[in-house]
């Protein structure tokens, strides 16, 4: 059949359909004028038109959901990836699936990530390749390492990386009832990893506890550079137009990501602030529970988070200490990127200041705050100095009085 | 299948002659995000994290709500998005069906956990593959009708929307649909 004929078939079909069922055949036989195949085609359409059980009338929504979710859980056809053999699914994201695999000759385990449905679109393949290249650039003890990369015979690209047998940092701290000092140590490790990536002009853009795993030996590892981006010399993303287009976990997303604006290193600073907040208080600054994603996003854009110190059930610390932790979290989490810590390095500096009891750089200066900090830090020296001062003053007064008494005649 | 040769959606509107490589890339990008969002939604529904109705219209609308605020999408109309979503959904489902079919024929048996919907899926697999190839034929005869059916069936687009997308009257759309439905339905019955 060609377009012209299809036009003709439809014309006759519509004309016949307007007639009563009895009159159709007569009409068509005449109209087709001996073209039996045309007659046959139109009659078949009329038959089908009367049917009520057409596949086309169904809704594929439910089937689609089953299918989409089903294929994700399955192991790939190919189970041998170079020297590695797939054991089980570790997790899945929008782009890829991560499997646990082992290398028999060495007895080691790795995580293998592959691009699901690589045939789908060049853009997805490109992003997956970018993640591979990004990981290849990064070589840091707190970042999951890239071991190997290749492509399956069917064109599916994959890479093998360090398998981190750990739990998300928030869960680790909860289970171990970690003290604040321990939480800060883990958090600092994460900051170091992120700072290292930034120093290689890479922003992570999807920092969240599930991408930060802590092993039994209490070491933290940063994972998933799936939406990481190359930064320019100013620390802004080179790939400005595509910022945040992947639908990231909004709870850890910076306002500019929610708005779809360019990400920068400050975007990572923000997410680090949220993670610190959650580590310290056990809850998120903007709790997604009971809110639609739209409401959550509005909160992130408009509302100021409560100070960590104002929440119930937080650890026992002095007021000044909590004050500093408030400043750390809330400075990192400012709505305007320019008002946050200028870099992760600056955040780390203030963390160290806090740990050493020094004044925070982000803290607005007040004499009382600085004096208070100084006195607490140097309590012994201050007491000694005060003692010396008091002694000097007392002695001066004592001798002055004696002198006066002696010179004044009775 | 035509769509395997080119991963980029190719209705006459998306794929009009003279489209620049940048525009094609852009389209591909929107397409892959739509695909990922549909995937994500599906797993969310399956995990039972929340209850959303499982009809196609709701699924696609949900994806649009999520994607609409991203800058690359704000320049897109909801209709255009549904057009892209329809193609993404078609490719996804058809490819899934094709792979499952291949698996059943023993070409590298894969271990898929059979769900309660397995038999239902078996039937729809065959129907989907048949529909896909019939739609390919229809696209040769009448691209407009093929686009309309794709948008309706795979993205739950209604007649008014389809008419507005294709820039024809609703009455024309109704006629197009009726004939296309009959023709495709007939092809599907003939298929094994």
Describe this protein's structure.
The complex is a heterodimer of chains A (410) and B (192). By secondary structure, chain A is of the alpha+beta class. Chain A has helices spanning 3-18, 21-32, 36-50, 61-73, 122-137, 169-175, 180-199, 255-258, 265-281, 293-302, 319-332, 344-355, 367-377, 379-407; strands spanning 80-81, 84-92, 96-103, 108-115, 146-151, 157-162, 167-168, 202-203, 212-214, 220-222, 229-230. Chain A has 14 helices and eleven strands. In chain A, a hairpin with a 5-residue loop joins strand 5 and strand 6 (157-162). Chain B has one domain (2-190). Chain B has helices at 2-5, 21-47, 56-67, 71-74, 78-104, 118-141, 143-155, 159-166, 170-190. In chain B, 41% of the residues are buried. Classes of the chains: A alpha+beta (410), B mainly alpha (192). Chains A and B meet through helix 1, helix 3, helix 4 and helix 5 of A and helix 2, helix 3, helix 4, helix 5 and helix 6 of B.
Q: Give the CA-based shape of chain B.
A: globular
Percent helix of chain A = 40-55%
Largest sheet of chain A, order of strands side by side? 1-2-3-4-6-5
- Structural domain count of chain B: 1
Largest interface: A-B, 61 and 76 residues
- Give the structural class of chain B: mainly alpha
CATH architectural name of the largest domain in chain A? Orthogonal Bundle
Largest sheet of chain B: none
Tell the overall outline of chain A. Answer: elongated
Mean pLDDT of chain A: 84
The CATH C-level name of the largest domain in chain A is Mainly Alpha
**SS strand fraction of chain A:** 5-15%
**What is the multimeric organization of the chains shown?**
heterodimer
N/C terminus separation of chain A: 138 Å
CATH topology-level name of the largest domain in chain A: Transferase(Phosphotransferase), domain 1
What is the assigned CATH homologous superfamily of the largest domain in chain A? Transferase(Phosphotransferase) domain 1
User: What structural category arises from helix and sheet content of chain A?
Assistant: alpha+beta
Q: Are there runs of chain B of 5+ residues with pLDDT below 50, and where?
A: 1-12, 105-117
